[in-house]
Write a structure and sequence with these properties.
By secondary structure, the chain is mainly beta. Helix content is about 0%, strand content about 50%. A hairpin with a 3-residue loop joins strand 6 (about 55-60) and strand 7. The relative contact order is 0.11.
Length: about 190
């Protein structure tokens, strides 16, 4: 085992690779480490893959997100701007944008090729946990420890809808084909 917590595990379906909080990329069929992503100064909190599997995006306790070449393991972009850990990352279905959610209570949209910040989504009153794009990339959903989830226009950052009334923070449950059918599972604030 690699000795650090593995709270950021993301699977790339096309070739069955897993990325863990240590920056190691594993072959899920053989169990062997195939790559190590070296560059963050804190552990990786969240990871995701581009739709074509060519890039990995990671969010870290060091307050940055990075976009990596998934074959070589080299850093292509470093995204800075959050104050505190980057709790979650997601790449758009077309691979052109990255959304990050931070402990600073904001979500940020980035150009996945240039690394420039496109806009900031503000409105949560506590740290942002999960982030995800809708299947067609038109909307983004964020969950927060403020016990709300928000749906945003992915092109403008305008808030579309706020979901409230949960007993704990929102955690995204994957598998939906429509943003309107995305399910949430409440999780205790201090689990």
């Amino acid at each position: 085992m690699h000795g650090l917590r593995a709270n950021a595990v993301r699977r790339r379906a096309k070739n069955e690779r897993l990325t863990t909080s240590t920056g190691r990329v594993w072959d899920a069929k053989t169990g062997s480490a195939v790559l190590t992503l070296t560059g963050h100064t804190g552990y990786i909190v969240s990871a995701g893959y581009s739709p074509d599997g060519a890039r990995v995006v990671t969010g870290s306790a060091d307050g940055t997100a990075k976009v990596w070449d998934a074959k070589a393991g080299t850093v292509m972009l470093t995204l800075t701007g959050h104050v505190g850990p980057v709790n979650s990352v997601a790449m758009s279905p077309d691979g052109t944008r990255v959304v990050t959610g931070g402990a600073d209570g904001t979500a940020k949209m980035w150009d996945a090729k240039a690394g420039t910040k496109m806009f900031v989504m503000t409105g949560h009153t506590a740290q942002v946990g999960p982030v995800a794009f809708s299947p067609h990339g038109e909307q983004v959903i964020t969950g927060s420890e403020d016990r709300t989830a928000k749906i945003w226009d992915a092109m403008t950052g305008t808030e579309v809808l706020t979901l409230t009334g949960q007993m704990g923070q929102f955690q995204l449950v994957s598998g939906s084909t429509s943003m309107t059918r995305t399910a949430f599972e409440p999780r205790p604030l201090h689990s």
